Amino acid sequence: MDPVIIVGAGPVGLALALALARQSVPSVVLDESDGGEEPRPARTVVLRSDTAAMAERLGCATIRDEGAHWSGWRSMRRKQQVRQLPLGGADDEDAPPSPLHIPQHALTRGLREAAGAQPLVTVVTESHMDALEQDADGVTVHTRGPAATWWRGSHLVGCDGARSTVRKLLDIRFPGRTAVERHAVATLRAELPWPDEAVSHRLPPWRSGGPEITARPLRDDTWRLDWLLPPSGELVTPDTLVARVRDTLAGWCGETPPYELIDTGVHTVHHRLARRWRVDRAFLAGDAAHLLGALGTQGVDEGLRDAGNLAWKLAQVWHHGPSDALLDSYQAERRTAVAARLRAADQALSGLRGSNPLRGRLPGAARGQDTLLSDGHVGQGTLGSLPVYAHSPLAPEHTPARISVGTAAGAPVADVRVTAPDGTSARLRDRLGQGRALVVLVAPGTGVWDRRHWQSAGLMPRLAAAVSALPIRAELLVTEGYPGASAHWVLLVRPDGHLVAAFSGVRPAELYAAADAVRGGAPAETPSDRTADIN
Which stretches of the chain score pLDDT less than 50? Predict the structure, then answer.
């Protein structure tokens, strides 16, 4: 079968190629550039814990080597501290997980190096796509460049950014709002009073501070500072930006400390959402499908979720045959989730930046506004919490056998420690993205039992037989405990880590039906299959 064609070699396109390769699907990545990545330290990415873990699973070494985790989020208003929120790691249940902050060029470089080491990924540089044709069996693409040629693929995914050629060739509208926010940005090296903590300062008491400043730490005493600019389109000159830097550092430190200015820029945020994310065998992902970024929402973070969601569905179809229900679920899940994020951001912007002169004088208004400002940055609330596909077309019908656990159906599962039948132990997230569902049995005490005993005891033989009979590939795992679950409960988890359903005990028929729903039902017959039958 032909490879998947991916247009665009940014973080989303490279992550999609690597995610497909982990599921034994080859891909060709068409890259307009010469393969180099210009360092721009002022252009950074914030990843939630799930997408950072995904990038690391894909082999992106820079996540570990060049990314920075925040120890907390500090909110200030004028001269007072309003809130301090500690942030923790995967094992800290008392604090929200810390996001990861990394320069975008470092993330892209790490993914590109991983792709270079993956034999199933072919990156073709200096290739600009200018034509696209589709038929019942695949897609055909023409590229211009030093070696203009035609490419044949099973499917095509446009990860080619805000000015997507794929989106234009598919004639998909891209409505939304332009210049929702503008920020002056500086990346600098200095010692600030809050090592490893991110800071949001509203209405700072110095003249050049503007309405809001955000400082987010990177590695090695490096910080990204953002100053919210007025909507009038204020001109940012080098002199005015240096004045902002010096005034801000003096305001926070008492006097301007020694600092090294590394990079500067102006960041303009747009909010847009493509009308369609799928046209037959062609898809959109990342900035080609959506633009967001106000109030701490993160376009690359959402783009990596697009890649993780689409990869396992394309892999299922590539290996086992077409399923429109499965492929349609990509748009149904991801577009709905991003649309909700954009609506939440627009509503919050109205409350934070609106013209009502009383909005900041109401009791509790300052604290409520601070919560809105911090949610998107730290991954909480409607602006930042992980997506839940509660109304996915892949959700199985509710039956009396299904029960509720601490994770809602359609939400990402908790990253508990699990044990495989061969005795290996890992975090649950480490078992994701391999093209198979996970079946997790809650069995307290298995950590101290010899695996030869618990493999043949209790529910395990019957559950193992039920898992081997499922209509999709699945891996059986055991955990000591899961939030909200009792002993002998069974969880079915999608290949991308979202909970399908939970059952009390081993229920082979219900487990089979839920797994069948996850794959979108039995694969359809292809035109090639029908031709073979006739012959």
Answer: 357-364, 530-535
Three-state secondary structure call for residue 243: helix
pLDDT of 369-411, one tens digit each?
Answer: 777 778 888 888 888 899 999 999 999 998 888 999 999 999 9
Measured CA to CA, the distance from residue 191 to residue 221 in angstroms comes to: 6
Residues 118/59, Cβ–Cβ less than 8 Å = yes
Spatial distance between the Cα atoms of 226 and 255, rounded to a whole number of angstroms: 20
Tokens of residue 56, six digits? 């690391």
Which residue type occupies 300?
Answer: V
pLDDT at 363: 42
- Quote the CA–CA distance of 280 and 137 in Å, as a whole number: 11
Q: Minimal CA–CA distance to 526: which of 323, 386, 344, 371? A: 323
Q: Read off the tokens for 64.
A: 């570990």
DSSP-based three-state secondary structure for 106: helix
**DSSP codes, 279-341:** ETTEEE-GGGTEE--GGG--HHHHHHHHHHHHHHHHHHHHHH---HHHHHHHIIIIIHHHHHH
Residue 532: what pLDDT?
42
Contacts of residue 233, defined as CB under 8 A and 6 or more positions apart, other chains included, come to 179, 182
With beta carbons less than 8 A apart as the criterion, state whether 496 and 307 touch.
no
Tell whether pTM > 0.90. Answer: yes
- In sign, the C-alpha dihedral spanning 217, 298, 7, 57 is positive
Q: Which residues contact 42 (CB under 8 A, 6 or more apart)?
A: 185, 186, 187, 224, 262, 263, 264, 265, 267
